[in-house]
Amino acid sequence: MTTEGTTLSVIKADVGGFVGHSSMHEALLEEAKECLGDAEQRGLLIDFHVTRCGDDLELIMSHRRGVANTEIHGLAWSTFEECTAVAEGLNLYSSGQDLIRAPSPGGLIRGAGPGVAEMELVERKGETVIVLMADKTSAGAWNLPLYKMFADPFNTAGLVIAPGMHEGFWFEVHDVKEHKKIVFETPEDIYDLLLFIGAPGRYLIKAVYCKVGKEIAAVSSTERLSLIAGRNVGKDDPVCIVRCQEQFPAVGEVLEPFSWPYLVQGFMRGSHWGPLMPVAVRESNPTRFDGPPRAVALGFQLSNGRLIGPRDMFDDPSFDEARHMCNTVADYLRRHGPFEPHRLPLGEMEYTTLPLVMEGLKGRWEDL
Ligand code: F6R
Ligand code: MG
Ligand code: MG
Fold first, then answer.
1. pLDDT at res. 232
2. Between the N and C ends of the chain, which has fewer C-beta atoms within 10 Å?
3. Pocket of ligand 1 contains residue 272 by CB under 6 Å
4. Is 342 in the pocket of ligand 1 (CB under 6 A)?
5. Distances (CA, A) of 64 to 23, 259, 300
6. For a pocket test of ligand 1, which of 14, 21, 138 has the largest count of ligand atoms closer than 8 A to its C-beta?
7. Each residue of 117-144: pLDDT tens digit?
């Protein structure tokens, strides 16, 4: 346990949808607030904010226990269990969906199903952070915006003109198939970096660090549900914490990548490409063709560990064009129906219907 730093832990899970996978019932949010409120009373948390992105329950917590702390992970897990019980009581859809296996004997939630992004920091004067959350997409969906925020001068003016950023950043990239990690330096290594993170299903940006001061700048959840469960079981719907201002990208530089709706995997049945739509929390209800995939961004000022906020950062007309473009792109993609490239390649679909169909057609295939 550390006492000096503030730790931000964002832990999320889908524990039941309302209606279908489109959104969340208020009762789950209330239950989670009660659980975390108790923990705050007990002194385990300094502060918390409970929210949702689509059908995903998001626990944003501040404390002094450091990252990967068993008490904090245990609190998140028991909160998800309590909320699952509420979901069961209302017969909500797919209750307990992401609670795949119990936390490790050590009590950590990693590998159990929920997504985890945590960072410990020494609060600056005016510590500004943004928590990004997505629904109907996979871990790895933050690769493109993180690259733009921290390495693309066409996105982030500060890389060129802000002295604290000019040196560049370190990118910690995880290979989630081989369980290996590597650190790339930018701008020196950007071509090598892009070769890997351009394949976000396998190579995921776990964290970004400032070269100046060697401080943590961003951290994302990289849990792949399909790899945990050994089969496809819903989407990861990842989260990410980004520090802003001064030696970090300005708030507007962190949000700028979302002004253009890039394509992600996770539309309908986790088996289609769709554009990522930046929305206010109240509009994070993926409904059309169970989408399009959504991203929300909540901004906070940290004050002695207290979460001052949130401000709902995409609740702004300057993202109207991105939302409009999303709908146009969704229309365009939808016209492909069951054809690639709207539908994912066979090996990447959440649904593994092919072997069943193949079995049924066994006797009808003939040699050419
Ligand atoms: C996509 C998603 C939904 C579901 C779809 C079918 O990530 O969550 O599109 O895949 O509604 O849901 P099930 O399989 O639960 O009937
Ligand atoms: Mg769901
Ligand atoms: Mg979800």
1. 65
2. C
3. no
4. no
5. 32, 35, 17
6. 21
7. 999 999 999 999 999 999 999 999 999 9
